[in-house]
């Protein structure tokens, strides 16, 4: 429901927002594209879900964000984002 | 934690596992995360469970939202905060320590004076709108003590790990909820013959228009259960913002997903609700658990999660703890289930070889946490494994091995705490 004004909610969330800005993704190629995630959620979601998914798992997660939750991420960004997440937040490939 | 490097025993193994977990966390911290505490915050290994993912342990910190004590921060936005173990040492969870769970980041602070509840839907005879004073004045008050537990509480303990909010044991709490009976509100609106579900929407929403709004439904019989409330008080105080104020749904026995917060809209409907949060999320492989079915929602190979499974938590001991011989092991904790009430809690201090019945605390009702306590004497030094197993009046009990399911629900594996008698 969107009938309520967000102003108060944002004020309440102020301190948390300041803390959230300290949560950073790993500096590496692909980070810029992965930053699109912050439109809807803090990136601690990514670190929390590490390191146990492989690239297929991260690809499924990114696709879920686009197809189920409507994230406006271009199709061409799915691969680079999943590759970045798999490399820095994914489980080590089986030896 | 004290160390005793000469003792090569299970307690030592458990300790080394903990240290290995902390080392993993350190590696991730070097990658850029900041950690305010020396030991991992909210470690589940420290409580005698399988450990959370390394990334979760590295990322989570204690953080106080406005009006809350420091809770275990899982994510900032949307806010997901877990209650630390120390607040489960009493049967009632304090409001300021009660866990916080939101799916969508748009969470308006709804003022009580501006709040209203709209009741309608194709199976409502007389659609209506109620303010908080009207709700208080026109309906009989009702109160119930009940556990609110997130469906995914303990998801982080799954082996293998599954994606989602990587909760430890504290995505739950027990409170005295006060409000009015949902059935009375529904009766005022009038339920037409042919109604199958009642649908609930809160004031929260997603940042994007295209994201499915968080909307949940209940079978019409559960909506009419006298224990299902529209609550506006929690433990004698107005319902806190982070726990759904001014008013939320309380569905005793059912998992937290149905306890819609900032409740603003109720629809009585003749067709099953089919949005993402009902048709895809919060589902289990059909028949995997003995919990009640949700008949109108059985249109795919899986089924919605419904009631909680029998579970317990030892709150008085830490993994690797050393107790001088001659001093008893004081095993205390809480037990709960999906609403039949706790019949007994058995405790073992010998890796499950023998079990003794614990003394149960005051009965606060069949939907509440039930405290238990057992004092086990110790004679000789050595390692012990302490376990607790709750059994509900329904016969439901805790499992030895995880019943794996892809979304990470219903973890009620028996806790195993390694204790050293020295």
Brief synopsis:
The complex is a heterodimer of chains A (95) and B (422). Chain A is built from 6 helices and no strands.
How would you portray this structure in words?
The complex is a heterodimer of chains A (95) and B (422). Chain A has helices spanning 7-12, 14-20, 31-34, 44-48, 55-67, 75-89. By secondary structure, chain A is an all-alpha fold. Chain A has a domain at 25-89: Cytochrome c-like domain (Cytochrome Bc1 Complex, Chain D, domain 2). In chain A, helix 5 crosses helix 6 (75-89). Chain A is globular, with a radius of gyration of 15 Å. Residues 2-12 of chain A have low confidence and may be disordered. Chain B has 422 residues and is an alpha+beta fold. Chain B has six helices and 25 strands. Chain B has helices at 10-30, 54-59, 132-138, 182-189, 220-223, 276-279, and strands at 61-63, 71-75, 80-82, 100-101, 116-120, 128-131, 141-149, 172-181, 197-202, 215-219, 229-234, 237-238, 248-250, 263-269, 283-285, 302-304, 311-314, 322-323, 329-336, 342-348, 356-357, 359-360, 370-376, 382-392, 417-421. In chain B, strand 5 (116-120) and strand 6 form a beta hairpin. Chain B is globular and about 70 Å long. The chains are: A mainly alpha (95), B alpha+beta (422).
Molecular shape of chain A: globular
Mean pLDDT of chain B: 92
Q: What is the CATH superfamily classification of the domain at 25-89 in chain A?
A: Cytochrome c-like domain
CATH topology of the largest domain in chain B: Sulfite Oxidase, Chain A, domain 2
Q: What structural category characterises the helix and strand content of chain B?
A: alpha+beta
* CATH architectural designation of the domain at 25-89 in chain A: Orthogonal Bundle
Text of the CATH class of the largest domain in chain B: Alpha Beta
Give the terminus-to-terminus CA distance of chain A: 49 Å
| H and E order of chain A | HHHHHH
Q: Ranges of chain A with pLDDT <50 over ≥5 residues?
A: 2-12
Helix content of chain A: 40-55%
What is the name of the CATH architecture of the largest domain in chain B?
Answer: Alpha-Beta Complex
CATH homologous superfamily designation of the largest domain in chain B: Oxidoreductase, molybdopterin-binding domain
Highest CATH level, the class of the domain at 25-89 in chain A: Mainly Alpha
Oligomer: heterodimer
């Amino acid at each position: 429901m969107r009938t309520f004004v967000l102003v108060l909610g944002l004020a309440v969330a102020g301190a948390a927002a300041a803390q959230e800005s300290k949560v950073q993704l790993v500096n590496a190629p692909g980070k810029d594209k992965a930053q699109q995630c912050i439109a809807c959620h803090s990136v601690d979601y990514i670190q929390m879900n590490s390191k146990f998914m492989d690239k297929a798992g991260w690809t499924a997660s990114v696709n879920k964000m686009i197809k189920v939750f409507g994230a406006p991420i271009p199709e061409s960004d799915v691969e680079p984002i999943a590759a970045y997440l798999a490399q820095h937040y994914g489980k080590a490939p089986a030896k | 934690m004290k160390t005793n490097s000469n003792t090569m025993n299970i307690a030592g193994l458990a300790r080394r596992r903990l240290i290995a977990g902390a080392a993993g966390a350190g590696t991730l911290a070097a990658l850029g995360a900041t950690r305010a505490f020396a030991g991992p915050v909210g470690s589940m290994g420290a409580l005698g469970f399988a450990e959370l993912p390394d990334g979760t342990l590295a990322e989570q910190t204690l953080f106080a939202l406005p009006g809350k004590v420091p809770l275990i921060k899982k994510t900032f936005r949307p806010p997901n905060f877990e209650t630390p173990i120390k607040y489960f040492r009493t049967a009632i969870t304090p409001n300021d320590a009660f866990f916080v769970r939101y799916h969508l980041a748009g969470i308006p602070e709804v003022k009580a004076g501006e709040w209203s509840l709209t009741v309608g839907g194709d199976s409502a005879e007389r659609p209506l709108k109620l303010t908080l004073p009207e709700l208080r004045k026109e309906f009989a008050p009702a109160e119930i003590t009940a556990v609110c537990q997130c469906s995914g509480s303990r998801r982080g303990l799954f082996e293998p790990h599954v994606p989602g909010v990587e909760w430890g044991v504290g995505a739950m709490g027990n409170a005295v909820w006060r409000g009015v009976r949902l059935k009375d509100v529904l009766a005022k609106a009038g339920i037409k013959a042919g109604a199958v579900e009642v649908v609930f929407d809160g004031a929260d929403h997603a940042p994007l228009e295209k994201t499915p709004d968080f909307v949940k439904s209940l079978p019409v019989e559960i909506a009419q259960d006298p224990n299902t409330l529209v609550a506006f008080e929690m433990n004698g105080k107005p319902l806190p913002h982070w726990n759904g104020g001014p008013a939320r749904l309380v569905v005793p026995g059912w998992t937290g997903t149905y306890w819609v917060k900032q409740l603003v809209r109720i629809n009585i409907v003749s067709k099953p609700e089919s949005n993402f949060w009902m048709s895809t999320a919060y589902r289990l492989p059909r028949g995997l658990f003995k919990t009640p079915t949700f008949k109108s929602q059985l249109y795919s190979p899986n089924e919605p999660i419904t009631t909680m499974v029998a579970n317990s938590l030892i709150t008085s001991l830490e993994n690797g703890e050393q107790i001088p011989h001659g001093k008893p092991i004081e095993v205390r904790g809480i037990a709960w289930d999906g609403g039949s009430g706790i019949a007994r809690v058995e405790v073992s201090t010998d890796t499950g070889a023998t079990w003794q019945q614990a003394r149960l605390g005051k009965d606060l009702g069949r939907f509440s946490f039930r405290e238990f306590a057992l004092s086990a004497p110790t004679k000789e030094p050595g390692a012990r494994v302490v376990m607790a197993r709750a059994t509900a009046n329904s016969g439901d009990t805790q499992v030895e091995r995880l019943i794996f399911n892809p979304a990470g629900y219903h973890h009620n594996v028996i806790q195993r705490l390694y204790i050293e008698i020295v």
